[in-house]
Amino acid sequence: MLDRYTLDIAALSGVPTRIVPAAGCTGRDHFPYRCAVALAGQLDAALVEFAGGHAGFVSHPSAFAEQLHDVLTSTD
Questions:
Q1: Contact assessment for residue 20 and residue 33, using Cβ atoms and an 8 Å cutoff
Q2: What is the DSSP letter of 8?
Q3: What pLDDT band is residue 55 in, cutting at 50, 70 and 90?
Q4: Domain residue ranges of the chain, discontinuous segments joined by +
Q5: What distance in Å separates the CA atoms of residue 29 and residue 35, rounded to the nearest whole number?
Q6: CA angle, 33 as apex, 29 and 38 as ends, to 5°?
Q7: What pLDDT is recorded for position 3?
Q8: Is residue 36 within 8 Å of residue 21, measured between CB atoms?
Q9: Looking at residues 21-26, what average pLDDT do you find?
């Protein structure tokens, strides 16, 4: 069922909120990573890679937290 879901890219592109597509760097061969890459491409945004895989916040909490802080406080 998940593979049939379609995001409304036009609606996402029109929001004032910054959308940051992100994925875990060790999950490049997995479905969630590929979805993040596709979203980044459709939004013409850079993909941000976090430490670890799909649950990098569990396996690499310090690195994940530091990068999350950097992403959320950046003005790019």
A1: no
A2: -
A3: confident
A4: 2-73
A5: 11
A6: 115
A7: 74
A8: yes
A9: 94
